[in-house]
Structures are given as structure tokens and as C-alpha cells.
Amino acid sequence: MSVTIKDVARRAGVSPSTVSRVISKHPRISKETAERVTRVMEELGYHPNSMAKGLVSKATYILGVILPRPAEELFQNYFFHEVLRGILAQANRSGYDLLIASGSSESDELETVKRLVRGRRVDGIILLSSKTKDPLIHFLNEVGFPFVIIGRSPDFPDAPTVDNDNVQAAYDATRHLINQGHERIGFVSGPQELTVSQDRLTGYRQAMLEAGLSISEDWIVEGEFLQETGYRAMSMLMNLPERPTALVVIDDIVAFGVLHGLNELGYSVPQDMCLVGFNNISLSEHTSPPLTSVDIGTYQIGYMTAQTLIKTISKEPLHQTRKIIPHRLIVRGSSVK
Amino acid sequence: MSVTIKDVARRAGVSPSTVSRVISKHPRISKETAERVTRVMEELGYHPNSMAKGLVSKATYILGVILPRPAEELFQNYFFHEVLRGILAQANRSGYDLLIASGSSESDELETVKRLVRGRRVDGIILLSSKTKDPLIHFLNEVGFPFVIIGRSPDFPDAPTVDNDNVQAAYDATRHLINQGHERIGFVSGPQELTVSQDRLTGYRQAMLEAGLSISEDWIVEGEFLQETGYRAMSMLMNLPERPTALVVIDDIVAFGVLHGLNELGYSVPQDMCLVGFNNISLSEHTSPPLTSVDIGTYQIGYMTAQTLIKTISKEPLHQTRKIIPHRLIVRGSSVK
DNA sequence: TCCCTCCGTGCAATCGTTACCACACAAATG
DNA sequence: CATTTGTGTGGTAACGATTGCACGGAGGGA
């Protein structure tokens, strides 16, 4: 049916082994033969059968990406998309394809990963979210399969990860608000079990403590990565007797919800409330007022993750198992009067 | 190394053929054997090697998704993401995985597709964008490889596609504005070569014509799927001597740019300008004012596309090669005074 | 009782590559 | 000139599954 290595061999007047050697650039092949074979391959439109190749070489040149489950409602659209672009770019550069998968429940997800690993469908796995007590990490760690986590996992300190210094990032964001003269600063968080929520909350507390400012626990609202969370948080916070004058918000999307709610109630940003978000998604530049946000180098996270995974697969030593991508506070209208 | 069908066979006291038959639910296998083998498979944590399987069966159970090139700057983040979720859901339900790929240039992209097809890396391909004179469609059509286009391709009317009735959708959006009493209505478009731009423009013109309203060509601005386009279009349109009082905007993202620009210049929506967008992304509910938008059933598009492709792969006849997903106008504050 | 049919299972070829081993021949060494 | 070293290539056995063919035994009909 389709053109195989044998067809090329016959047409070029050599053996299949020789063709295989030409493809893998074996040193002991004569220049003339190599050229002739290459020409024939192009003539016939030959491409090696990936499965035959994979069967013998035990490599698929596919990286698996496990998406967070939509069911958990913590699907960070915009963040995820940028990360994926970064992963894809680096994977392609290194000759890898990307297989994306998800599960509809935790056990389903684990089953999927087992299938991918045991069925040799991918050479390595990228986990896009990291929570504490993650059974996926546990499994991958146990069977010794190459994987990289985006974020960090306190339960498996040796697992390779790519992450921001989220504590420092939140510290910087909070510090920025303190520098503007704010004393009552609130924090709108994501789901507790995610390390990113925990870390940013820590950074916020640190900055407040260091500045000698006290935190009312009413100022800390937990939710999900959705505008609804921001909207709801806003109405709770604005009804407090002693309400904050500024907010650090876990994600720009959530901050949009806050902004919208404030607008609706006739409050003005930054006069009545200052806002700082995270992720610096492209829309943040185009709200009214534009949103101050911590740029966490989302694309670069993806890029670096793929690179780390590929190194792990080819058994190159990693000089550091925990890579930190630098962040940068982008100050815009939502936080300066 | 890893557990194979032979290990299972040995442990269960049967031949590898029998194990294979148990897996594929061959009818002529005794119930007892089937149960015993199944138990052993679970005990050993056996998963069939996907490449050995694929080599002989000539099926990979992988669908390829070709992303639009970022270089073209027509990467519709939010649209794409929802579609992908739909594709993924349906693919998983049918036992398929998803491989995503893109190219950095047109020829690179074609090369990637050739590699996927000829190298038997995927069983079928989904094209996420459809433009006129698309070399990918030409190639896939020529070699007779299963594929489905999201959108439509005027050059290949027989190719299976999943699409909206974009002419009608834009007609409805425009009609809605006309019903509100507007007479000078503008249109902010995406790249000309995309069929979606062409179709929506057609629908807009149709509605205007039918209502006996004349269109000034100054009211039609072409750009890309970016906020910048909206921002720029807005400033051009507001400087016209006879400026429109309402706009149909090709995508919500672009409409955000318009909205932001208007806010910045102190114009108010909907008093000074009414807006209708497309795609009804989740943020549209949370702008100030909330954005009226045509919901095109993005998730369902993905879902249906995967379903159609899988049918094509298994050579089931399609009762219709061109599937239309219904749209729905969601009226919000940006278009009613 | 004999033959035919059907059921459950094993044997062996096959899918398209890779990689080890062998071999012919040329060049270099003593 | 004999021997070693090296170069370019072919033959063949894997890799881990599927599948057509064959075969022994049980059951049913004549």
C-alpha cells in the first residue's frame, strides 16, 4: 500500500539495512549511496513508518500532556493555552509531537496515564497542574517514567519541576500595593489544594507581616479560576465594615470578575479599590482601567518544561531538578491612582 | 522489560493468540479462559503495546489536530480552546487520543502533515482553520486520507466540514441592530482569506441590503483576531464624519478592543455605540457593559468534528458531508439602550 | 458406529524497522 | 608478501502484537 523501506531499497539497488543507515546518518555509508538513496526517498515520497520504528527502537517521539480536568473547574484557559504553545514550539524543534489527554475523574485520569505509559504510547509526560497528594505523580515516580511537573509537588521534592517563585511573585505584588500607601490589602485565592494558591498566599502574608500590617481573615477569599469567583469575592469584600482598599488576585481572569463587579456597583478602580492580578494575559492590557499583573513568563514555562522533559528522556543529567522562571510585575492603571 | 502478551499467556497457561483474542473479545473464546486471562492481565498491569498493535492493525487510534500557525496572528485563543475541549471529549469517548501539531510556515506545515500521514502517525486529521487555496486540504484530498475541516473550503466542496451558518449568524446579528433602530452599522472583520470572515461579511451586507440601508465602505474595517484590531478599528471609525452608531464585530476578543477604546475616549456603550460580537466566550458576560454575542456552539463544533472524523475513519457513510452547528444570539447590555 | 459440524485453542507468518554479525575488498602495517 | 585494520554493505533475527489456518475433541444426525 504505502511506500516502505524495501521499496526504496529495491529502487536504489541496495539493501533495506543500507537505507535504514542512510536515514539514521550512519557514518560508514558512502557519500554516493547516501545521495542516491536520499533522492529515491524523495522521489517516492517515503516517510518511515512511525510504529515500526517505535516498536524496535522503543521510542515514540511523542510527549504526553495531561490537562487538568474540566470537571474540577480549575481549568485556566488562557494560562494553559500559552503554556501549550511553549511546549509545542520546543517539542517541534526537537522532533517531538504532542499527545494531549485528560480524564473525566481522578481514577479515569490515572487509568489514562497508565495506558500511555505501559502501552508505550509516549516517551514522557508533562503534568499541567500540581496539587498535593497527586496520584499521578506517585505512579510516575514509582515506575520511573520520565515526567515533568508544571508547578511543584511538596510530596515529591525530587521530581523535576518547572515553576515560578510564586511566593516571591505574590510578595512583590503585595509590596507594590504597600508602596502605594495601602494598609488594608485583601487576597482572592484559588483552590486550596493547588500549590500555586498556597504559595501566593504565603507571599502575600509575608509581605504584610514584614510591613507590620495586620491581616483580617475576612480579607482572604478562596475560590476557583473563574470570573464568578472574583465577582462573588468582590461583593463579600465590599460589604465588610472595614473593607480593604486593594486586592491581590490569584489570576487575571478572576480579577476581571472583581473589576466587573466593582464597575457594576459604581465603584471606581483605582480610586475606590486597587487591583493586581497574575499571568498578564493579553486581555489585561485592554480592560478599563488596564490591569496591573505579574507576568510569570507563561510561554517560557511551557518551553522550558518541554526542554526539561526531553533532557530527562535522553538521560541527560539535569543540573537542577527544580527550574524557576523569573516573573515581572507589569504596573498598569488598576493599581496606581 | 515491560509486560507483554507472552508474559500474560505464560502466566495464564494459554498461548499468546488466545490472550490477543480475549483482548479483542473474539466470540469463540470460552468464558472461563476469558476470565482467567483478564484477571492475569490486571494482576500484571498489562497494557497492549500501542506500536506493535498499530504495526499490524494499521491503526493508531490517534487523531491529528493541526493548529493554525501563530505566525499568522490569527490564533483565536479562546475559540480554539473550547473546540479542542469538544474534540478531546468525543475522541476519548471513542477510544482515540489526540496529537496536536503545527508548523512555523506554510511549507513546514505541509511537511508536518505529510509526515503524519505517510508515517502513519495518525488515523485522521482535523484542520482547525480553513482558508481558500489551502495546500493542506489539497494534499489530504489527493491522497484520500481521512480528514475534517472546521469551517468550509470553497475550493473543495465535497470535503467533510463542520461549520456554522456564518452568513445567517451575521445576518441575525445585524438584523438585531437594525431592529434596535440603527441605520448606520459598521463591520469589523478578520483576515480576508478566511472563509469565516467572508461569510460573516456577506451576512452583514445581506441584512443591510434587505433593510434598504446603505453601507459606506468606510464602515468596514479588516484586521486580525486581536484586541489591537478592535482598538484600531474603533479609532478609525470614530473619526469618520458620518460614523456608525453600531458595530458587528467578527470576534468577541476584537470587540473587547473596541470596547476598551471607546471607554478610554469617554464614549459610552450602548449610548454612543452598540456592539455585537461572535463566539460568546466566557468573558463576554463579564465586561462593562456585558457584550451581546452570537453563540456559535464552539464546544459542540469540536465534538461534532471528532465524531465526523471517526466515522470517516471507520468508513461509515456520512449522511451529510457538511454539518452545520446552530447558532444563537445572546443579547446583553452592549446592544440595547 | 461412523461421519460431519462446530467449538476452543495453538502454530506460524506477517507488519516495517533497527541492529548485530559477517563478509568482501581495499589500504596500511611490519 | 603476509597480516592487520578499516570501510561499505548485505543477511537475519528481533520488537510485540494480530490473524488465517489447522487440529483435537465434543456433540448430533444418519
Automatic annotation (TrEMBL), chains A, B:
Residues in the signal sequence: none
Entry annotated with the keyword DNA-binding: yes
Designated name of the protein: Maltose transcription regulator
Matches recorded under InterPro entries: Cro/C1-type_HTH, HTH_LacI, LacI/GalR-like_sensor, Lambda_DNA-bd_dom_sf, Peripla_BP_I
Transmembrane feature ranges: none
Top-rank taxon: Bacteria
Encoding gene per record: txxe 2479-mapR
Keyword list, A-Z: DNA-binding, Transcription, Transcription regulation
Domain HTH lacI-type: 3-57
Organism the protein comes from: Thermobacillus xylanilyticus
HTH cro/C1-type domain location: 4-47
